[in-house]
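Suppose you are handed only two things: the residues of a chain and a line of SMILES describing adenosine-5'-triphosphate. What would the bound structure be? This form records exactly that question and the answer produced for it, so the two can be stored side by side and reused later without any lookup.

QUESTION INPUTS
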Amino acid sequence: MTSTATANNNSSGPVLDWAAGHGPVTGALSATTGAFAVATTGAATGMPPGWALAVGAAGAIGHTVAGLRVRNAGRTLATRAASWLVGAGWTTWAITHGPLTWAALGSLATIGVGIGAAARSTALYEEAREEEAIAAQQRQIARELSAERRAIAAEWVERIQRICNITVRVLAVEKWQTGTGYSLDLEPQGGITYDRIAQYSVALSADAKLPHGCTATASPGIHQGRAILDVTTVNVLKEDCFYPDDYGPLSVLTGIPWGVRTNGDIVRAYLREQCALVVGPTGSGKTNLVHEILAGFARAEDMLTWVIDLNAGSAGLPWVLPALNGEIEREDGKPVRPGIDWLAASHEEAMLMLDTALAIGLHRKKAYQGLLAEKNTDLLPISAKIPQILLVIDEGAEILTSTDRQMKQLAAKILEVIRMLRAMGIRTILTALGATGSVLGNLMIRREAKVRVALTGGETEGMDLGKMFPGRRGLRVDQAPYKGAGFMGTPESPAALFKAWRILPNQIRDIVAATSTRHPTLDAVSAQAAGDAYAQRWDADRIAWMRDAHPVEQPPQSPSKDADPHPSIGGGLNLRALRDQETDDQADQLARRFMREIDERFGTTPEPDRDNDPSDNMPGLNLSALRGEQDSPAQQAALALLLAAGREGTGASAIARALADQYGTTRQTVVGWLKAWVKDGTAVRVGEGTKARYVHRQHAPDQPPEG
Ligand SMILES: Nc1ncnc2c1ncn2[C@@H]1O[C@H](COP(=O)(O)OP(=O)(O)OP(=O)(O)O)[C@@H](O)[C@H]1O
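ANSWER OUTPUT
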């Protein structure tokens, strides 16, 4: 008897659950103990024995009905009904003859064992039946699927035979999960390779009546005697797809996603050793792709991005201005670092950047010899501690082919970087307006820039896909006539159609904010080689052009001098601070506060006289552009304290402590002032290390100034 009475939550009172399950042991136990209890109570109270039989019959019927509902096998139904009836029969007999005899107890035990064994056997049988039913269902699905695949295979064998005159065997057909096409694994007969099929890509696509923008593209298979034919049946290039909003960390070693293939696969650029070439005529979506590339680099934990854009720096500005203008904050409300590490918009700055890259690369070669030997490699192990430098040069290919004298100078340095610095973790991404012979005629680019993208936008002029992706046949500009769509090929992923994600300015701002704490800082070895050119890359005079080109909107002039003329400045780094300081004291103060915060949070603002103390060579964001603190009240107070300290002198900590309450000045800021005063002769440093004190020049007439 396997039924149990269970409480139904929704109705009042117990109901009989005929389908409730029991294991063989608990079922047998429940049946025998139940029968025994009914028999003893029945015998003691003189219950008519026929009642037990009636209950057993009802149980048998109830269970049979429940079993039929769940499609139990006939033998399961029979076993269960029999269990009920045998139990009821025993109970009837035991009520009549007394349940407490050896004969009654012995027979009940035997019935219990019998019910247990029968229940176990039916359970096993039901399980096997269920498994067989599932397997049969799967076989049916597989038969249907393989019928569809067989049909696809047969269709393409016939088509390839007819159009390419090649006999192929289809080893597998894989339908893409995205539902936008399928791939065939082919074995061309007679020693023919994949490229013979690739030649007929256009004719094959037409013969298969594929929609516009869909292709049948052959590529190498698992070995030379095999080929993969990718057939797209839905044109995914037409649709806009936005940059995924997962801004999680990336690495140069895991590759940086640049877009999606027609089968929905993400295509990644592996740039540890490769340079990249991105070609796209005006309006094809090249600027968008550059931003998307910068987004990937910003997300990486081991990459520093340097951007050269001689066209007013426009490629890099959206990654710098939101941070410098204080437009965005980190989630914790703190100021953010720019999304790129250096931006050059002029010939001089670009020269400085390229010279710095070369100096870093050459110095890394020498300084990291021990590390290379220890790691037994000739490739510098890139990590967050020793970051890869990615130089993104917008329209860099045009620089390389220019005949202008200044451009030629830049070109020579770019080529030097490409040629010399692969092993030391410095690579370039060049963009070009066209994939013309003059761009691709350069051996260095052909050899080193194997990550290639051609955004076509339907433009055929100057778009030689054969040169861009040599050995890849059947690629035609008109297959991707959409903005942001084109072809991408890497050493890992043969050239094929792809679509870049669309990225908008608000996403750029979000990424700058989300990745602010993730950017690495230049390793000390590299920072040493990079010197002031790098450390002072955010200095006022160096980034003044950003302010000139993109002045921050001025709020209407406040009538009262005391009122805050810049209510929107917040705690951010506002380029207004770069304006005429006489008229902008308040902005100065706010900018100074921001500087302090940056100093405290990141420790990345080396002081101007950093060469005095090489151990202070902290690479990173030098926002000294916003200093202009000369003669600030805090600085004057510090100077007064220095004077008051007399011949004994004082230290940075003591001064900072004295100023903290009134001005909120940090020790690091005071260190900067002291160093500046030592340099200009206002103060003299006495003693070394923890004993170092600073004495005002008035009190140390016999000490020679250091500066
Ligand atoms: N991946 C994309 N998906 C959808 N639309 C895009 C994509 N990339 C660009 N576009 C569209 O194309 C327009 C031009 O893009 P973008 O400015 O990047 O082109 P460009 O090649 O740099 O042209 P220009 O040199 O004139 O600036 C964008 O305004 C946008 O509407």
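WHAT STANDS OUT: Confidence is low (pLDDT under 50) at residues 1-15, 553-591, 600-630. The first strand starts at residue 4 and ends at 7.
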